[in-house]
Amino acid sequence: MRKITSVLMCMLALCCTALHADNEKPIQVSQLPAAAQQFVKKHFADRKVALAKVEDEVITKSYEIVFSDGDHIDFDGKGNWEEVDCKSSSVPDAIIPSQILKHVRANYPDATVKKIEKDHWEYEVKLSNHMELSFDKKFKLKDIDM
User: Fold this and answer.
1) SS in 3 state form for the chain?
2) What is the span of the domain harbouring residue 86?
């Protein structure tokens, strides 16, 4: 009985892995949702796109753009940004909510924003001084990691 259970568990694990297999495929920038295309043109017009890709998930799609310098942007299925990661530069100020930008400039004047992520509940900001700040949706500081 243990062998049968073990075999069934292994088969279940393989099936789950297959369902969640890498469903990413390269696309042209022109195949991104219009909102994502506009975002890139507005904030990263001078950057060269090395790769654009779509990930088909069970219920939704997500998109990613990788620039030739390694910076990248993740978008949801509608083309709204979810993460902007600028390893070789700084996140453009226009992308950062003004309350967060004001807080960073007031408290960390020598730091720049290297990465910003948002979801339904919060914003996470990583600074050039390696500090990580978490804000709620009302832009109240929730946490600081050093």
Assistant:
1) CHHHHHHHHHHHHHHHHHHCCCCEEEECHHHCCHHHHHHHHHHCCCCCEEEEEEEECCCCEEEEEEECCCCEEEECCCCCEEEEECCCCCCCHHHCCHHHHHHHHHHCCCCCEEEEEECCCEEEEEECCCCEEEEECCCCEEEEEC
2) 23-145
**Residue 105 located in a structural domain:** yes
49: domain CATH number is 3.40.1420.30
Assess if residue 116 is contained within a domain.
yes
Number of domains in the chain: 1
Sign of torsion, CA 36 90 111 98? negative
pLDDT in tens, 70-96: 999 999 999 999 999 999 999 999 999
Q: What is the pLDDT of residues 1-31, one digit of tens each?
A: 555 554 445 455 545 544 455 689 999 999 9
Judge whether 70 and 87 are in contact, CB under 8 Å.
Answer: yes
The number of CA neighbours under 13 Å toward the Cβ of 3 is: 0
- pTM > 0.85: yes or no: no
